[in-house]
Structures are given as structure tokens and as C-alpha cells.
Amino acid sequence: MTILAARGIRKSYGGREVVAGIDLELVRGECFGLIGPNGAGKTTTLRMLLGLTHPDAGEITLLGHPVPKAAREGRIRVGVVPQIDNLDPDFTVRENLVVYGRYFGLSEADMRERLPRLLEFAALEARAASRIQELSGGMKRRLVLARALVNDPELVFLDEPTTGLDPQARHLLWEKLRALLRQGKTILLTTHFMDEAERLCDRLKIIDHGVTLAEGAPRALIHEHIEPEVVEVYGEGVQEWAEGDGRRLCDRAELHGETAFCYVRDPAPAVESLRAMGSLRFLHRRANLEDVFLKLTGRDIRE
Question: Going from the N-terminus, what domains does the chain have, and what CATH number goes with each?
């Protein structure tokens, strides 16, 4: 069942089109990723899907409601985890949840019934009376996620949920998101971490400059766009190797700074060449989603 759909949505600011005809469809129970570089149009797309920004063109349906005309009715069954924590520092953990519940018309009795489950989900039972300043970054992100579940939403929007977290906190949050999927929730995720998208997403869309570059399951995208094996080469003399043996032995070679990326179907000849030289360091690995992302969007820094 389709839970969110967009057809040909567009948005311009100051004569520049930042979203240029995006199509999108989520089915119930899946995790869908929307990924792209800074300035690709992700945040504007999310705001249009939620009815917070009016599109210049296109159609959006959120949980059966036309957006933006009936966006409020759709958002009642949606949870949102923003990119930046916006918890109230004057309230405790418990109070942040209770006050947020009032926005959805939940009574004190409703919140008394829901609070234990929300605190348990966030692993913050022992911190219910703590002020926000007393929480670590990982605790705050778990609380923001729990707060997004106050209204028991069918669809959860997650805008870069693990940015700034250490590896332990990221893995714990991933466990929480997988638990939501097992409960039948639907997730729309934006992230700059390709390993996160590859681990969590059933399908994803890569966008840049407001247009779709690719869409599909992570492994299918890797198979479609990238050679299966990658040899990364580092050290003094890497440019000479890339222009000589690298060009001859790689199906596709890219030199960026002091690193050569050798994309191959058969890595053995390139690996043997590097072992014989001994002066260069190298890493042989399977191709991943980050390779696809960089091939399609480029390696230049986006400000």
C-alpha cells in the first residue's frame, strides 16, 4: 500500500530551481532513503512532502491526504526527527515528551500510558527526571526519536538522524530504527552516511541539483553502476602507478589527491602489481554505495 507519493514536484527560489521534477513513492513498512550532496534539494523536498513548503508544481499525497491542501490531517499520523535537536532545555526528559504530546491533543492519561514505553524505547528510563543539558549527544538523539513517536505515527521522517554521533551511539540508534521497521512503521531517511543507507534502506533515491540520478535497492544500484571490486592505492608514486599499471590493469581508474581508485572486475592483476612494487600501500575491498554516490555526484566539496 502506498503511504506517500509525489509526482513531478518542483520548487524555485530566486529564479533557481532547487527541486526539478522529483517523483517519489513509499510503500507501507519500508525504509526509503533520500540521499544527495549538500544543496541537492533534500531538505526542500522533505518540507514539500510535509506541507511546510508549497511546491510550484506537482502533486503530493501523504497518508491519503492531498498536500499542501490537507497537510495538517496527514501530519497527525507522521513523526519527524529534525536534523538539529530542538529539545526544550528548560524541561526534563519526561516533560519534553509530555508537552510534545499536547500538540497532538493527547491527554495526561494518554501520556501516562505512553511514557513508560517511550522511555524504554529510548533507553532513558533512568533519565526521566534529567535536564536536557545533562544528556549526551546519543541520549538527545534517542529522545528526539522517542518524541517523534509520541503520536504513534505510521510514517517517520528522519533528517540525518545520526550526524555528530560516535560509532556506539550510531549503532544503537540503528537498532532502534530497525525495531520501528519490525513494528510495521514506514521510514523516510536522509543521510550523508552511505553505510547507514546501505544497512537500513530497502530502496533509495540519489538526487543532485534537484533531479533524480538513480533509484533502487542499494545492492542493485551497486551492481548497476560500479565494478564489483575496488583497490584503493596510497603513497608516494601513486600518480605514476595510476598512469601506468593502473590505467592498464583497471577497468576504470580515478586519481584524487594522493589516492588512486582502481575499479575492477578481476582485482588479481592490480593486486599482484602492487605487491611486486612494495612501495605503495593499498586496500582491496568490495564496491559499496559510497562508490556509487561519488561516481554519480562527483568528489568536489559542496559548501
Answer: 2-222 (3.40.50.300), 227-286 (3.30.70)
